[in-house]
From TrEMBL:
Regions that span the bilayer: 15-37
InterPro entries: DUF7382 (IPR055806), Ig-like_fold (IPR013783), Invasin/intimin_cell_adhesion (IPR008964)
Position of the signal peptide: none
Domain of life: Archaea
Residue ranges occupied by any DUF7382 domain in the UniProt entry: 43-106
Protein name from the UniProt record: DUF7382 domain-containing protein
UniProt keywords, alphabetically: Membrane, Transmembrane, Transmembrane helix
Plastid as UniProt keyword: no
Amino acid sequence: MLEAFRSDTRAIEGLPVRLVVALVVGVASMSVMLNMLSGVQGLATSELNVKPSPDVVEPGTHDITFTVVDHEGDPVEGATVVVKSGTAELDDVVAEKTGGDGTATATVKAELSANREDGTLVVDVKPPAGSSFVDRRENTAILVVRK
């Protein structure tokens, strides 16, 4: 009986092929499922956009109004607008929260280095907590121009 098992080579040949097929089918199925899950999450998010007014200022202190809107242009309440130094300089980072009309007003004191004629302030948005909003794209920067 033991001799019968030694001469039978079918299990050795068939087992690796079956394992490879099972592995390929399993990986392909998992890939499809993960793609479906990430696609559902992507459809549920909405990109935010910030519109500063004015978006061009001279060096010095200015009140700038920011309007935060979703992809359909509707105002977004509770978003935090963050203004920080880019190629123009601020003493501190400025952060303001939007009201019910989607606007926030921030007082910024923009400065340019002695050898610069212009520069930019970077504007970011932190979406409201628990919302489906995201801010992945670059927002409109504030241009600081020396006259």
